[in-house]
Amino acid sequence: MKKFISLLILLAFCSTSISAQNLSSKEKKIIKSIEANNPEAISFLKKVVNINSGTMNPEGVKEVGMVFKDAFNNIDFQTSWIDMPPEMNRAGHLFAETSGNKGKKLLLIGHLDTVFEADSPFQEFKMVNESIAHAPGGNDMKGGNVIVLYALKALQENGLLKNAQIIVAFTGDEESTGKPLTISRKDLIEAAKRSDIALGFENSTGFNYATVARRGASGWKLEVEGKRAHSSGVFSDRVGAGAIFELSRILNEFYNKVKGEEYLTFNPGVILGGTFVNLDEMTSKGDAFGKSNVVAQTAVVKG
Ligand SMILES: [Zn+2]
Q1: Ligand 1 centroid to 111 CA: how many Å?
Q2: In the sheet where 7-8 sits, what is the strand order?
Q3: Which of 109, 118, 124, 98 is nearest to 45 (CA)?
Q4: Ion ligand 1: residue ranges with CB closer than 5 A
Q5: From ligand 1's centre to the CA of 87, what distance in Å?
Q6: 201 CA → ligand 1 middle, Å
Q7: Which residues make beta-bridge pairs with 111?
Q8: Secondary structure (H, E, C), 77-95
Q9: From residue 290, how far is each of 223, 227, 265, 278 by CA, in Å?
């Protein structure tokens, strides 16, 4: 997700707000590790934020990846860096994995790249008070990556990763994916197929929420061609109804038959019809020419 305003963070390890009496002894140990490691986690975050990793700076993205790779090696994960073919101009991805068959198989997803390219004026991690920092790509999403790492480190320190299958996938091209997707997302999809549950650590709806589903969006365009003829012939077998009537008929069917599908919305935003139309895709502006005594030859709608 592109977030041009990237404000961070305290690391979301708010252990003080968790009521300790409801926790098991194992959970209490995990909290202890997390608290003990919190200063280190923040300096780790500072270190990776201060390496520029705009998507179009593949060397920087890989450098950030290497810092995480070492850190995952240190908590006994098997790590690998997957390069993308040079013509794709993307850094590649970091994978880290523990193998076993105890519990659910987890896939933890992050990304190493940010929207702040090397020429952005916003490049440095800066604490603004004792719990909040401003950092380029800190919220989106080096902070999330650091949470993944230090959550797993706390489990590892307490011997809780033994025989568990956990895959960490940090892609290097989330903000602007390498094409084709069949190559740039191949390894992530394969990791997902080996997992029961996938969790993304990019914050999207606030620190206290997990998002279980999101709507996607796409665009559509309908173009109709009719026969240009004198309007006295409209509706005849030879001429037909013309492009404007036909486009209206299709839109009306769309409205009547598709409307009401759960979670689905669709919206025609601009429409042109006549003898000639000209719709500029870039500006979403256009013009049309037609006469009331000529059957419309062309019509277009975008939604
Ligand atoms: Zn993101």
Answers
A1: 7
A2: 7-8, 133-134, 126-127
A3: 124
A4: 1, 140-141, 202
A5: 23
A6: 9
A7: 171
A8: CEEEEEECCHHHCCCEEEE
A9: 16, 13, 31, 12
**174 C-alpha to ligand 1 centroid (Å):** 6
Can you read off the two tokens belonging to residue 83? 């390069």
Q: Which CATH class is domain 7-200?
A: alpha beta
State residue 296's pLDDT score: 98
Classify the C-alpha dihedral 82-161-145-190 as positive or negative: positive
281 CA distance to ligand 1 middle (Å): 27
- Of 43, 218, 215, the C-alpha closest to 146 is 43
CA dihedral 243, 245, 247, 253 (to 10 degrees): -150
**What share of residues in the chain are helix, strand, coil (percent, to 5)?**
35, 25, 45
With 0-12 CB in 10 A as exposed, 13-18 as middle and 19+ as buried, what is 112?
A: buried
pLDDT score recorded for residue 18: 54
108 CA to middle of ligand 1, Å? 14
28 C-alpha to ligand 1 centroid (Å): 31
Token digits of residue 269: 């935003």
Report the separation in Å between the CA atom of 39 and the middle of ligand 1, taken as the mean of its atom positions.
24
pTM: 0.74
Which is higher by pLDDT, 209 or 16? 209
Question: What span, in angstroms and rounded, lies between the C-alpha atoms of 190 and 194?
Answer: 7
Q: With bands split at pLDDT 50, 70 and 90, how would you rate the model's confidence at 215?
A: confident
Ligand 1 center to residue 140 CA distance, Å? 5
CB-based contact 50:142 (threshold 8 Å):
no
Instruction: Indicate the domain borders of the chain.
Output: 7-200, 221-302
CA of 2 to the centre of ligand 1 (A): 6
Interval between CA 130 and ligand 1 midpoint (Å): 25
Distance separating alpha carbons of residues 49 and 45, to the nearest angstrom = 6
Ligand 1 centroid–CA 199 distance in Å is 14
Give CATH for domain 221-302: 3.30.70.360
